[in-house]
C-alpha cells in the first residue's frame, strides 16, 4: 500500500502553524499538521489521506511518527533558546481508542526529552463515543502532564455535558464558524456563545481559520483568548518557522 510504503520511505513531514494570543499577537503554541510529499503526485493534504490511513490501519504508525517528530522538534526549538511554547498534535479517534496511547505518548516524551506541559493533544468530539472509557484514557494522559483540547468544537453530535466531565483545558472553535462571523449573524451568535461558555467553564478558547483582520477584531472584542489562521501564518515546515521564531525572540 502506497501510504505504508510512504511512511517507511520518509515521504511524510510535519508542518507547524503558529497559534497566537489575540490581544498581543504573541506566539503561544504551534499545531503540528502532517504532509505527504508523494514522489509522483507531489504534496497531498491530510484531508485526503488521513481517512485512508484510518481505513487501512496505517494511522497508528503515521500518528506515532507525527507525535515523535513534533516532540523532537519542539525540544530542539527549546534547546536553541527559543521561549518555550506548546506543540499541539492531532489524535485520530482510532488512535485514541487504542489501549496503549498513554504509553506511546509517554515514550515520545521520554525519547525527545520534552516536558509534558509543552505537549497538547487535540481530540475531536468523535472520540467521545464511549464517555466512560474516554474519561479513563484522558485521565491517563492528563496524569502524564500533557494538555488536552477539543478540536473542531461545535461540529460533532456529542452532548455538552461531556465538557464538565472531561479533563480538557481548551476548546478550538471550528473554522466553519469563524469563516462566517462577519456575514452570518447566527454563526456570530454561536461563536460568542461558545467563547462565553468556555470561559464560564474555566476553559481556554482558540478560534481556528482566522483569515481576516475583521474576524480577528470580532474575536478580540468577544474576549476570545487565542487564534490560529492564515491571517497570522500558514502551516510551514520547521525550518521556515525557525527564522520566524528567532526574529520573534529578538523582538521580545
Ligand atoms: P484540523 O486539526 O482542524 O487543522 C486545521 C486545518 O485548517 C489545517 O488543515 C490547517 O492547514 C487549516 N487552516 C489553518 N488556518 C486556516 C485558515 O485561515 N483558513 C483555512 N481555510 N484553513 C486553515 P490541514 O493541514 O489540511 O489538515 C486538515 C485536517 O487533517 C486537520 O484539521 C486534522 O483533522 C487532520 N490532520 C492533520 N494532521 C494530522 C495528524 O497528524 N494526525 C491526524 N490524526 N489528523 C491530522
Ligand atoms: Mg487540529
Ligand atoms: Mg480543527
Ligand atoms: Mg478539521
From TrEMBL:
SMART domains: EAL. InterPro entries: Cyclic-di-GMP_PDE-like (IPR050706), EAL_dom (IPR001633), EAL_sf (IPR035919). PROSITE patterns: EAL (PS50883). CDD domains: EAL. Residues 1-249 form the EAL domain. This is EAL domain-containing protein. It comes from Exiguobacterium alkaliphilum. The lineage of its organism: Bacteria, Bacillati, Bacillota, Bacilli, Bacillales.
